[in-house]
Amino acid sequence: LKGAMQQSSELMAVVKAEAYGHGMYEIATYAEKMGVGSFAVATIDEGIELRRCGISGEILVLGYTDPSRAGDLRRYDIMQTVIGREYSELLNAQGYRIKAHIKIDTGMHRLGFDDTDIDGIISAFGMKNIDVHGIYTHLCVSDSLEEDDVRFTSMQIERFYKLLHTIKERGIAIPKTHIQSSYGLLNYPELKCDYVRAGIAMYGVLSSPNDETKLHLDLKPVLSVKSRVVLL
Predict the structure, then answer these.
(1) How far apart are CA 204 and CA 214, in angstroms?
(2) Which residue in 65, 168, 171, 209 is deepest, having the highest Cβ count within 10 Å?
(3) HSE-up (13 A, CA, CB side) for residue 45
(4) Taking Cα atoms as reference points, which of 21, 18, 55 lies closest to residue 38?
(5) What is the arithmetic mean of pLDDT over 11-27?
(6) Which residues, in sequence order, are CB contacts of 161 under 8 Å at separation 6+?
(7) How far, in Å, CA of 129 to CA of 73, rounded?
(8) Secondary structure (DSSP) of the chain
């Protein structure tokens, strides 16, 4: 995976949901020994578990964390995804200076600032208790090479980079960026960002064994199930 990434990119290991069922402790500790310095989880409690397992690298919560838990984010040095203007204001009001990544909604319509909310995004950068370390979006149909899906993904990419250009013109120093998940790397390897959020591909498989991708990497499943015949 690292060999397929742009030289400027760093692997962010997605270990949410017990590392896709493989065991978060086992995967994260081994990955950190291999030099992986950034991890992504779904919830703050997964992040706290990683810290208690001894993981010292960056940890980013991709999902929602109640603002009342800002103290835990600070205590365990966990970065939180900021998903909108109101949320950033609530998080800022807790009084704990926390690290954050700003998520941009470029078309998935799940979590994130709308890419047209320039003022809201810029305001998050200026908040006293939010230390912005990254900005990202999610390419929701990058797993498909169907013409309509490729067109939609291209639109998302264009909107994300247009936003970065706009806020840079407004005087914002662009933090680390990430736009590719596993399929973002496999189907759009030319994109240049600071991180690649590798999830399913890191475990040696695709979401479906029949998926077609532009890159054909020699992926091997890291988990196998074995048994012995005990009865005929």
Answers:
(1) 16
(2) 65
(3) 3
(4) 55
(5) 96
(6) none
(7) 12
(8) -TTTS-TT-EEEEE-HHHHHHT-HHHHHHHHHHTT--EEEESSHHHHHHHHHTT--SEEEE-S---GGGHHHHHHTT-EEEE--HHHHHHHHTTS--EEEEEEEESS--SSSEETT-HHHHHHHHT-TTEEEEEEE---TTTT--SHHHHHHHHHHHHHHHHHHHHHHHTTPPP-EEEEE-HHHHHH-TT---SEEEE-GGGGT--SSTT---SS------S----------
pTM of the model: 0.94
The Cβ of residue 219 has, within 10 Å, a number of other Cβ atoms equal to 17
Q: CA torsion 146→148→152→155, rounded to 10°? A: 110
**Structure tokens belonging to residue 222:** 């890291």
Question: Cα 217 to the chain's mean position, in Å?
Answer: 21
| Separation in Å, CA 20 to CA 11, 90, 217, 226 | 17, 31, 20, 18
Give the side-chain half-sphere CA count within 13 A for 59: 30
Residue 163 tokens, joined: 């936003």
**8's tokens:** 């400027």
Q: Answer whether 90's CB lies under 8 Å from 127's CB.
A: no
